[in-house]
Amino acid sequence: MTTAKHSIQLDPSKPKAPTRDDADFPPSISVGAKDTKTHPSKAGDENASIYFIGTATTVIEWEGSRILTDPNFLHAGDHVHLGPGVQGTRRTNPAIDLHELPHVDLILLSHYHADHFDQKVEQSLRRDLPIVTTPHAKECLTEKKSEEERFTQVYDLDHFESAILDIKQKKKNDDHFDSAVLNEPDKTSASEEGTSIDNKKKENNLHPSIQITGMPGKHVPPGPLSIANDILSAVPPTNGWMLELGHKTTTSFHSGYKIYISGDTLLVPELSTIAETYKDQNIDLMLLHLGGTTIPSPGVPLLMVTMDAKQGVKLMELIKPDVTIPIHYDDYDVFLSPLEDFRKEVEKEGLGGKVVYLDRAEEYKFRVGGGGERE
Q1: What are 144-200's pLDDT values in tens digits?
Q2: Quick one: pLDDT at residue 191?
Q3: Bias regions of kind Basic and acidic residues — which residues (predicted)?
Q4: For residues 322-360, b (16+ Cβ closer than 10 Å) or e, as one string?
Q5: What pTM was estimated for this model as a whole?
Q6: Which domain range does residue 284 map to?
Q7: What CA–CA distance (Å, rounded) separates 77 from 342?
Q8: Nearest to 254 by CA among 92, 118, 360, 371
Q9: How many domains does the chain contain in total?
Q10: CATH number, domain with residue 71
């Protein structure tokens, strides 16, 4: 089993408000999904979901736990600071407001940028809410803040470093987890077939876990601009993520579903290492950050810092996920590559059956199985 840099305990049985004012919070997303979508050809028996709030903000739910990605809850007309002399204006409203969130177990933050972690979020979040993010963002959320304002549970991951989230479960739910593992065929190894899941669980303490691994990503293209940005720190470093939802024993991790989140990146050579690392493993889902974000402004589009439609399709062809869901589109005026452009590119390349489109307040449901053992 891969050695994790961090081991984080999640306990959904003790819910808290995600904000620090201790306001009442709903048991689930109160607005509810206006539409639910599933795998284009293999729907059925779903036990996990992704709810799209807007921009790169989603809620991933499985086994009672909730992960909130890149929280941005600004409204249409609100402004964000994106770098020296660079500002963006939001065009859309989030599906729900920050104070309408249910209990959240962890925040997954791709980078410290105001359109991913806005000023209202930063002021309002509970200071002991666990956050997994980049080393740069950790420094911004801890060392660069006053003692009373700093976040106290921030875990940094660099590229290809991992954290394990152990999800605490009530004993009455044990049979559910056993059947989930027992009924799912092994994706990577036939050697597990015929093994008694009941015995394995008893001997090795099988329980639901999520492995998060930092993936490469770059906001700025390689070359002189990248060197200048390293000196000026105008655009922050960013991560993508590989989320593996599965089950852990004392000796191994069984991956039941893999989600690759691209993060805010361009199609840079470093992304090929992702395809190489996971070449013998199925990527079930990709959350693809699009938008073609261009700075310093829509009127002066000098530098693109996130993938546009063409790059997004090329990343699909590189990673080869089973399903792709585009996010991070059409929400800010600096997003100059609309979702419609991506649709056209997808159809042109004959990939329409591999994409699920979510509007804000829609959800995608999927199944996490027992998976195959990964040493």
Answers
A1: 899 999 999 999 999 999 999 999 986 654 444 333 443 344 444 434 443 444 455
A2: 40
A3: 34-45, 178-190
A4: bbbbbbbbbbbbbbbbbbebbeebbeeeeeeebbbbbeb
A5: 0.88
A6: 6-365
A7: 25
A8: 371
A9: 1
A10: 3.60.15.10
